[in-house]
Fold this protein.
Amino acid sequence: MSFPASPSDPATPATDSLAGLRASIPGYRLGDPTLSRSPITLQELDLLKTTVLLTDEDVGYLRRAGAILAPQTEAILDVWYGFVGQHPHLLHYFSNKSDGAPDLEYLGRVRARFGQWIKDTTNARYDQAWLDYQHEFGLRHTRAGKNRTDNVASVDHIHFRYLIAFIVPITATIEPFLARSDAGADEVKKMLAAWTKSVVLQTVLWSYPYVKPGDF
């Protein structure tokens, strides 16, 4: 299965300010004032960061990782999309509900946002705007929001089990890309650890819409 390339990638913003985000990506709305406020507070976010051991030092290593990963974004996406394409049970979530065929336009749009997500992960400010968008991101995996952004007729829900299970390929495959730099083995290890903590933290936040009220 081959996947369409993402839209051309504009220059990476000099900062991770909300104003610098790529408006050309459909549905990318971090900082949009119309987004619902996250039901998780900044204080609760701090406790989650403490629980996954995400420190200021890790944030520094995430910034370093971002400088290494950004130029390799398309190659990373090729690996991730190749993984999805090799597994029909994952490709199913990007397929037309009517006939089960992959929606290539939908895959292309999601790919563009996935590429931006790599940059956002390594540049996260962990502020209210970032927290609100994590909630929106979670909703987009569920019946409450999937397909809405791209106005597609795909399956309407990604099962929770794959939200958790996908942590492994998203983290395990990133190390070779970090190693393609002048970073030493110890620095690569620390960047990978910071990336993993960030992915776990985000996945926890995305899980909120799946959890019975009062149980999160």
